[in-house]
Write a structure and sequence with these properties.
7-stranded mixed beta sheet; about 800 residues; single chain; alpha+beta; 8-stranded mixed beta sheet
């Protein structure tokens, strides 16, 4: 008799892969979520039975909810309630002329909504805690407007406007998970669907805009275009990605200075105006028959053949494989030089907005690749809209505070128009356009102005949060590393904010405006979210509300900064004057006299020099800048951009997020161990136990380097002692004042002694080395005598 043995069998059918997908992909069918920005409004269409929930995301924000029937007339009964206000807050928002409400106004016009006599339901107030919600059930079909109204925040009042969250649970969910096509950005000239696994050709006039939309998310689209005039002459010279990469110096153009796509004759065809995705491909051909033949799918539909078919009557010669811009195609080149790809980053409604620089014949596909993750294993449609050249669209990329947050387009700060008088060189930083350099001077001259006279720069993208309530001190004492209890009213302290494992979330400054009133100023939106999460977890009575849009700021830095501000800053007798204002103190002040523009002036900065920061409401920014500029001219004041700012902060040993620190780096490794008073702070705080352990057992240390020679050194360059790598360069520059190349580097503590000789690896790290030595850190004014002066 045979003795058969069988392997142990795992019972049951296979389980699907465990994949976490934040954002709209994670919502159940029929569920929708929207963010209504503070000082903004949102319109959605609803049907009977839909469940509507409105959440006070940060607390303290009033809400106006207005319902309209299909005829566009106010109908609060749609929600089974009666109106209790005349929608004054919503009407004030619409009269404000805010550019951010442009899309909202268009929606109102398209639906024929009549706001005259509209009745709103107003609820929530300044005492409403974060997370409070109201629920409604829709009785009749129509539209809802949710507004988060509010006026300008007084500079010291902390009455900021904050976002609301709208959640909708649809009574009837679509059987297949598909997303609604977003509303047009303006009245479209062309409104065309590109069905899955097909391509469409279309004509666009010079100056008109082309919006290419990923309707359902994670769907690639190949794009190609030709100069119509060249086609008329028998020349089918398509957009050439190799020429484009060469001229733009980037893998693919993005909104800003390097935004154009060219043909082989180096003629610009289109430029990128807006991009909500940020990840595309300009290396590979559009998918072709040979590609599928070679991987075992002969006869598979492909973009190249679809292009040939769509362009057959346009005077274009067919190609076996088309060069193209592969929008939303997620590719990269790994360390071994291989092109690798994965699912697209694009989400439902993401788009690229182009502008035609000449008359162009275009073709767009909805890629049919179902053999790889290139389309998220789910083939869907692409939608193309074009808009007339008379429309005005600002250059912008999308930024999301968190993976499931709504995209926010790049904006101009309130000081943008003042700096734009002196430069066109702006770069995107934290969701805003900031000046990079000024043509009349340039970074070196700006640098010397900061070191010897005075400069003014825009720092408005810094994130500001109003922390108020009886438990505000307790929250900040627990979340920040510094001892907040020692902070007096009118004082400022620089602190780290850490996770439980000791890794840094952010660094920033904390201002104490009153016993229960604080303002946290950091570099990242998540700082406010983290504060709010900890307050909720601990059950503390405190509100944490964003005021970034209510407080924009410039920095006036340099030896002459005090002399400049003494001429224009007025303070009351209970506030210190500019002459009296000490380092890390602030004053509530005005420009000119007691009736002037209200401001907050802090004696802080990011340059290593004597300096100040001036905070004001965006409506007053131009007046503030003009006053500073006029008073500064006799003192040699110049504008300074991000390029020169990076130079002065490296010399001064001031750390920058993403270079000197990350969530894997503790404050000791980031060179700011002084922000962690483990011995003198009696209270527990987040990360304390981990920081004690990491301080007692250090692994890495931030040090200064002096480099022999003038070869450029960059972030990420390896640091060696002999063959082994012992560290990495975090930041570097050629120091004008020291006359040598210097760097900040994080190295193994065993090789961190001052005077130790090391080598910086270039090329592959071994073929080329730059001798360097570890020196005292920071390189410039290590005793901080200048900012203290």
């Amino acid at each position: 008799m045979l003795n058969l043995s069988y392997p142990e069998v795992i019972p049951g059918p296979p389980r699907p892969s465990a994949i976490l997908t934040p954002g709209r992909f994670s919502l159940l069918p029929g569920s929708e979520r929207y963010t209504v920005p503070g000082g903004g409004a949102l319109l959605v269409d609803v049907e009977p039975g839909d469940k509507v929930t409105i959440v006070n995301a940060e607390g303290g924000q009033a809400c106006e909810l207005v319902a309209f029937n299909k005829d566009g007339h106010s109908d609060p009964g749609m929600l089974g309630v009666s109106g209790n206000s005349n929608a004054a807050g919503l009407k004030a928002l619409l009269l404000s002329g805010e550019e951010s409400l442009r899309q909202f106004r268009l929606k109102i016009e398209r639906r024929g909504i009549n706001l005259a006599g509209a009745q709103a339901l107003r609820f929530f107030g300044e005492a409403t805690p974060a997370g409070a919600e109201e629920n409604f059930t829709v009785q009749r079909p129509g539209s809802l407007i949710v507004a988060a109204p509010g006026g300008p925040m007084a500079i010291e009042a902390q009455d900021t406007v904050t976002p609301l969250t709208l959640k909708i649970s649809r009574a009837t969910a679509k059987p297949v998970k598909r997303f609604e096509l977003p509303d047009p950005l303006a009245d479209p000239v062309l409104d065309r669907r590109v069905k899955s696994a097909t391509a469409e050709a279309y004509f666009v006039k010079a100056g008109d805009y082309i919006q290419i939309i990923d309707v359902d998310g994670r769907q690639c689209t190949d794009f190609q275009c030709f100069s119509a005039r060249k086609l008329d002459r028998g020349k089918d010279h398509p957009l050439d990605v190799t020429t484009t990469r060469t001229l733009m110096g980037a893998s693919y153009p993005m909104p800003g200075l390097h935004s154009k796509y060219y043909d082989q004759d180096m003629e610009p065809l289109v430029e990128v105006v807006q991009d909500t995705c940020g990840r595309h491909d300009a290396f590979a051909l559009a998918c072709a028959a040979k590609y599928y033949d070679d991987i075992g799918y002969p006869g598979h539909v492909n973009c190249s053949d679809n292009f040939n078919k769509a362009l057959s009557d346009k005077g274009v010669t067919p190609r076996a494989g088309w060069m193209a811009v592969n929008f939303f195609f997620n590719t990269s080149i790994d360390a071994h030089g291989l092109v690798v790809s994965d699912e697209p980053w694009s989400r439902p409604g993401d788009y690229v907005l182009l502008r035609a620089l000449t008359d162009v014949v275009c073709v767009s596909s909805a890629c049919p690749d179902d053999t790889t993750p290139a389309n998220g294993w789910n083939l869907t449609d692409i939608h193309v809209r074009t808009y007339g050249g008379a429309e005005k669209f600002t250059r912008a990329v999308a930024r999301r505070m968190s993976p499931d947050a709504e995209p926010v387009m790049t904006r101009e700060t309130a000081f943008h128009s003042s700096f734009a008088k002196h430069t066109r060189d702006f770069i995107e930083y934290k969701g805003y356009w900031l000046a990079n350099s000024f043509a009349k001077a340039g970074p070196i001259e700006e640098y010397w102005a900061c070191r010897e006279k005075a400069v003014v720069m825009d720092l408005s993208p810094l994130r500001k949060f109003e922390v108020t309530g009886p438990d505000s001190e307790a929250l900040l004492q627990y979340v920040l590393t510094r001892d907040v209890k020692k902070l007096g009213v009118g004082q400022v302290v620089y602190s780290a904010m850490c996770y439980e494992h000791g890794g840094m979330i952010d660094d920033g400054t904390l201002l104490r405006l009153g016993r229960d009133n604080f303002r946290w100023i950091g570099g990242d939106d998540f700082g406010g979210t983290w504060l709010r999460q900890q307050a909720e977890k601990l059950g503390l009575k405190v509100m944490v509300r964003s005021s970034t849009d209510q407080l924009h700021n410039i920095a006036v830095q340099g030896p002459k900064s005090r002399d400049i501000l003494k001429e224009i800053i007025w303070t009351s007798p209970v506030q210190p004057s500019i002459s009296e204002l000490e380092w890390f103190r602030f004053a509530v002040a005005r420009i000119g006299d007691a009736q002037g523009v209200p401001v907050v002036v802090s004696r802080t900065g990011y340059t290593g020099e004597l300096g100040y920061e001036i905070f004001c409401h965006p409506r007053d920014a131009e007046k503030v800048f003009d006053a500073v500029w006029e008073a500064g001219q006799p003192h040699g004041l110049k504008p300074m951009g991000m390029a020169a700012l990076d130079m002065v902060r490296i010399e001064a040993g001031l750390v920058f997020a993403g270079t000197e620190f990350s969530d894997e780096t503790d404050p000791f490794e980031a060179g700011i161990g002084f922000t962690v008073p483990l011995k003198s702070k009696p209270d527990d705080f987040i990360g304390r136990a981990a920081l004690i352990r990491r301080k007692e057992n250090p692994a890495r240390k931030l040090v200064g380097l002096e480099i022999d020679g003038n070869v450029n050194v960059g972030h990420g360059d390896c640091v060696h002692v002999g063959r082994p790598q012992i560290g990495v360069v975090t930041s570097s520059m050629r120091s004008p004042v020291l006359g040598k190349n210097i760097a900040l580097a994080r190295v193994d503590v065993a090789h961190s002694e001052i005077g130790m000789e090391v080598e910086i690896g270039k090329l592959d790290g071994h073929q080329k080395r730059l001798p360097a030595r570890i020196v005292a850190f920071p390189h410039y004014d290590p005793q901080k005598t200048k900012p203290r002066s």
